Amino acid sequence: xxxxxxxxxxxxxxxxxxxxxxxxxxxxxxxxxxxxxxxxxxxxxxxxxxxxxxxxxxxxxxxxxxxxxxxxxxxxxxxxxxxxxxxxxxxxxxxxxxxxxxxxxxxxxxxxxxxxxxxxxxxxxxxxxxxxxxxxxxxxxxxxxxxxxxxxxxxxxxxxxxxxxxxxxxxxxxxxxxxxxxxxxxxxxxxxxxxxxxxxxxxxxxxxxxxxxxxxxxxxxxxxxxxxxxxxxxxxxxxx
Length: 240
Known about the structure:
By secondary structure, the protein is α/β, with parallel strands linked by helices. Helix content is 25%, strand content 19%.
């Protein structure tokens, strides 16, 4: 065997092994929809008046922070990505507190426990751009980002204001986008809510539900039935 032929054989073998390894690492396709719920900590100390409630009206005034992985036969969707960046955990199991937000678990190990990596995510969406939803957004920059155009424009404006950490999602600037446009005339109250950051994707996904990828609709239809963290909820029938 000549040296050239031997080199070609070795290269072909190496390529075959790399291909097989990549195939083995890729999650197996599913036949029905699964919803994974990940624990992203809690938010304590907010005044309910910010949300037009009084303390007397609410039994519990603290918030639980969660994110969701939708696994669909047509792909995967990650919805929200936590309040505390994974890089801020020290690996000793201790919770991390940043202002009013506290998290006990980093996000990506929870994603891995479900059998997925950020590179396995097809679509990424956030309910809105406040920093309690954007902590690990940069990890999903290779996914297609489902975003409202007005929201994206604000997020990457020169001086965005509010509860916002642009460094957490800076990599999304060059991400592939599936942009939604505003399709309903807003009332003054709706505009105020949108500008405060609390009417992000919910409105465009609801208004243009026939125009978004079918797996993205599962967020709207199934997030209310979410179970324990990292536990899949499977449906009997997969949508076509």
